[in-house]
From TrEMBL:
InterPro entries, sorted: DegT/StrS_aminotransferase, PyrdxlP-dep_Trfase, PyrdxlP-dep_Trfase_major, PyrdxlP-dep_Trfase_small
SUPFAM superfamilies in the record: PLP-dependent transferases
A GO MF label: transaminase activity
Keywords in alphabetical order: Pyridoxal phosphate
Protein family membership: Belongs to the DegT/DnrJ/EryC1 family.
Modified residues (N6-(pyridoxal phosphate)lysine): K182
Source organism phylogeny: Bacteria, Bacillati, Actinomycetota, Actinomycetes, Geodermatophilales
Cofactor: pyridoxal 5'-phosphate
Protein name: dTDP-4-amino-4,6-dideoxygalactose transaminase
UniProt GO BP: polysaccharide biosynthetic process
Species of provenance: Antricoccus suffuscus
Length: 376
């Protein structure tokens, strides 16, 4: 038997041709293909502006800077997320304050956020965890009157929907990931989308050292004007090689999501007949792309979560533990991160795992996974 990976990117001849064309053009750094990717992504996500960057982490970092978050501020966010969500707050000198999540979706809610708010809260980061859309409207209703900026961490959200629109369409600012574990990939890379032109303008500058004149504008002129550096900026640029892949991948998005939902439906049908397992599902307000197809292992199941992971590994199937709890990691264990209860976060971290889902997954491969779930 061959190994079944938890995820593998879907890349082909079109992506190869796009990269080759970029190389042949002689423009491989941030340039026209990055601009094309930004325009196409903004249109796909129904966002006002899109700015390509080096990663979703850098997108979150710049989003908080644009929102005016800094020293002495608190940022409420889930511990139930990849550690980069919390790190972004630390990068700008703010205190990450952890909020709990909903047991069904793994997402923060207006209620869990309200329980974690402090007088110093300047921003809230909400996460579309595993591709499950966060219920944004009640959170905006809570935060907007308090002048608290809501940043949507849509790292996993490409192709998910919220109330009939793409995830992120209603966000003031959102951050996206194109890591190979995500639905569409550029190898590494990220994007900021925002409804605010002034924020888009500023993060465009900040991503390339806060230069007053972009690299593309300088290269367009034989005798370029001398640039100025308007503030301390960063090297958070995306290359045209990455963007060339991104443009092709974006064109595949609907196909990729449809296939992942088809695979998840196959798991759901089987798991519905297995006592002690619960698979994540669409919430009433939207649809998930199943970027992570996670399953809760309850006490009814014959083995605990770790036992099931071992059984899958013995069958040469690579599953993964569920989403981490950042507050348990050494980087945050000794920090003051608020005092909200994180009982659901800890339960889900200890009782969930992520099943293999990828575009090329065959029926026989999925059957192998399901057989282990049934027989364990």
């Amino acid at each position: 038997m061959s190994r079944i990976n938890v995820m593998q990117p879907y890349l082909g001849d079109e992506e190869i041709a796009a990269v080759a064309a970029a190389i042949t053009s002689g423009w491989v750094a941030q340039g026209p293909r990055v601009a094309e990717f930004e325009t196409s992504f903004a249109a796909k996500q129904e966002a006002g502006y899109a700015v390509a960057v080096s990663s979703c982490t850098s997108a979150l970092h710049l989003a908080l800077i644009a929102a005016g978050v800094g020293n002495g501020d608190d940022v409420v966010l889930p511990s139930f997320s990849f550690i980069a969500t919390a790190n972004a707050a630390v990068y700008v000198g703010a205190r990450p304050v952890f909020a709990d999540v909903d047991i069904a979706t793994g997402n923060v809610t207006a209620a869990t956020i309200e329980a974690a708010l402090t007088p110093a809260t300047r921003a809230v980061i909400v996460v579309d965890q595993g591709g499950v859309p966060v219920d944004l409207d009640p959170i905006r209703a809570l935060c907007d009157p308090r002048e608290i900026v809501v940043v949507e961490d849509a790292a996993c959200g490409s192709g998910s929907t919220y109330k009939g629109r793409p995830v992120g369409a209603g966000a003031e600012v959102a951050a996206w990931s194109f890591h190979p574990r995500k639905i569409i990939t550029t190898g590494e890379g990220g994007m900021i989308t925002t409804s605010r032109e002034e924020w888009a303008t500023r993060v465009r500058r900040l991503r390339e050292h806060a230069m007053s004149l972009s690299a593309a504008d300088r290269h367009a002129n034989t005798l370029a004007a001398a640039e100025q550096y308007l503030e301390v900026g960063y090297n958070f640029r995306m290359t045209d090689l990455q963007a060339a892949v991104g443009v092709v991948q974006l064109g595949r998005l609907d196909e990729l999501v449809a296939r992942r939902r088809e695979i998840a439906a196959g798991y759901a049908k089987a798991i519905d007949e297995i006592p002690g397992l619960r698979i994540v599902a669409d919430p009433e307000w939207g649809t998930t792309n199943y970027q992570s197809c996670w399953v809760e292992v309850t006490e009814e199941y014959p083995h605990d979560r770790d036992g099931l992971l071992v059984a899958l590994a013995e069958a040469d199937i690579s599953a993964r533990r569920g989403i981490m709890a950042a507050h348990r990691e050494p980087a945050y264990a000794g920090r003051d991160t608020g005092d909200a209860s994180l009982s659901v976060t800890e339960y889900l971290t200890d009782h969930t795992l992520i099943l293999p889902v990828f575009h090329q997954m065959s029926e026989s491969e999925q059957s192998r996974v399901i057989d282990v779930l049934r027989q364990t």
